User: What shape does this take?
Amino acid sequence: MTNPNQDVLTFLKTRRSRSYKLLTLPIPDRDQLSRILTIAARTPDHGKLEPWRFIVLEKQSLTRLAALIETRAAALEIDPEKATKAIAAFANAHLVVAVVSTPKPSDKVPEIEQTYSAGAVCLALLNAALASGWGANWISGWPSHDRIFLRDGLTLQAHENIAGFIHIGTSKITPPDRPRPDINALTTWIST
Ligand SMILES: Cc1cc2nc3c(=O)[nH]c(=O)nc-3n(C[C@H](O)[C@H](O)[C@H](O)COP(=O)(O)O)c2cc1C
Assistant: This one.
């Protein structure tokens, strides 16, 4: 065993998301975000298939996507409260990274493993942003499963999915922690 990295352990023990609803300016500039994305891409990936990619959504595109969500909510007859929430998530955001799960054909690596890797990228991106001092939140919402929104708004192909929308910005408050899992209740030890 090598020496523990106490700073990293303290970060991981205390890390928590900042609600996307409370994220404001400033946001990372392109160089700062590129460094965060580089850290996020350093993620376990069976077979080195890189079954994920990033779409960085800046202010103008977020405004455009909010309008498309409004149109889609009407077409799908989404409950008005749910529609307003989804529209606001984009209209009020300043910077969102869409992590796209983009599975590759492979005889060796089942698609579900590639999907897990995309989820792992989301957490790595969230943690890289938080550790860099930004507020960040991993969210989804009904538009992330609406094929027409994904095609017309984000030009996703039919085999691609959104693993997460990672909102990044400045959070002026540190939220109270949420209750954390009871590890004993979740863990089975098998010794024989
Ligand atoms: C795939 C996925 C989708 C999520 N979607 C939402 C969402 O749409 N809205 C929301 O408030 N939280 C959503 N969450 C929950 C938050 O990202 C997060 O778990 C919660 O804010 C606590 O995070 P923390 O453990 O980093 O503090 C989602 C989490 C995951 C893993």
Remarks:
- The mean pLDDT is 98.
- The chain has one domain: 32-172.
